[in-house]
Amino acid sequence: MLKHDWKNFAGLQHAGALDSYIVSRRCFFMKAIERIAPDVGWLPISFVNAYFVGHHGGPWALIDSGLPGRATQILEAAEARFGGGSRPEAIYLTHGHFYHAGSACQLARRWEVPIFVHRMELPYVTGRSDYPPPDPTIGGAIAFLSRFMPYRARDLGERVRELPTGELLGLRDWKWLATPGHSPGHVSFFRASDGVLLAGDAFATMNMDSWTGLISARKELAPAGAPFNMDWEATRASVRKLAALHPSVVGCGHGIPMSDPALPERLERFAARLRPPRHGRYARRAAQVDEAGVVRLPPAPFDPVPIATVGALLLAGIALGSGYVEEQLRD
Ligand SMILES: [Zn+2]
Ligand SMILES: [Zn+2]
């Protein structure tokens, strides 16, 4: 199917070009998917990560599904890793935010597999409730950008299931831990035998609050998508819970995975000093949620930026408009 797609690629007319195109695509994805533990592969998809767990020829699972419209990239990476026509046992989502669940529906249909999320995350991925809106007023790079990030309810289709409490399909020896705070039903995945932790957005291995951190993706333990954290006390408790596992390898939803010997100690220090922002919508009061979705939100703080943006657009519009009028007058 994938080769068929390549053959249909309109810009490639003769066989030589097609072959080199296929080879370069294969090489790109071979390079893009990286091993972070014996059977754990990491695939950065723009600024979010997906993880492939399992051996070639054996059962495997996908954890998080990247941005919308990236199903082909994930399929190709999966085929390069597990063999042509291979499909996972299941797709697991650490949470349902747009950038992590983006391609889940398309992949689940293509592979005919379930999408597992925590019970408390179900309302947001079955179209029943919007997420608590992000709080752009806490300051920082990702907070600024959060004004343009979607948080509305999405329906990932009929394949969505509640995470089971027992054995996990395709994830032998792994367990999930509830790590709410960033989102109501956020979960992390941990394998005790070798200490591999896939922590989603419980925290990040890059500083998303600084513009340089966001652009350089320099390795650093930091909050993940802080403007989305709808319950800071729960976020802190979740990070402490994960730090207590003393993981040897950490792969988060954002940033390059980490695995240095000092990692357990660094994570404990990070957990101990993590604080809510000084001000902001959820800094002191959490969004109230239940199994049907959002119940009550703290009031939205005043956000001057949209007004400044509207003002700038109006001014730009006036300037452009007057230029246009002048042009018309000259004609
Ligand atoms: Zn998130
Ligand atoms: Zn995220």
Description:
This protein is an alpha/beta fold and 331 residues long. It is built from 11 helices and 15 strands. The protein has helices at residues 2-7, 15-32, 71-82, 98-101, 104-111, 122-125, 141-145, 211-216, 232-243, 263-273, 304-330, and strands spanning 34-37, 40-45, 48-54, 60-63, 90-92, 115-117, 160-162, 175-178, 187-191, 196-200, 204-206, 219-222, 249-252, 288-290, 293-296. A 7-stranded mixed β-sheet has the order 1-2-3-4-5-6-7. The N and C termini lie far apart (56 Å). Residues 1-31 and 322-331 have low confidence and may be disordered. The chain binds zinc ion (ZN) (2 copies).
Tally of domains: 1
Low-confidence residue ranges: 1-31, 322-331
Portion in strands: 15-25%
CA(first)-CA(last) distance: 56 Å
Can you list the strand order of the major beta sheet?
Answer: 1-2-3-4-5-6-7
Identify the bound ligands: zinc ion
Assigned CATH superfamily: Ribonuclease Z/Hydroxyacylglutathione hydrolase-like
Using only C-alpha atoms, the radius of gyration works out to 22 Å
* Total number of strands: 15
Which range best describes the helical content: under 10%, 10-25%, 25-40%, 40-55%, 55-70% or over 70%? 25-40%
Shape: globular
CATH fold field value = Metallo-beta-lactamase, Chain A
Please trace the helix and strand order, writing H or E for each element.
HHEEEEHEHHEHHEEEEEHEHEHEEH
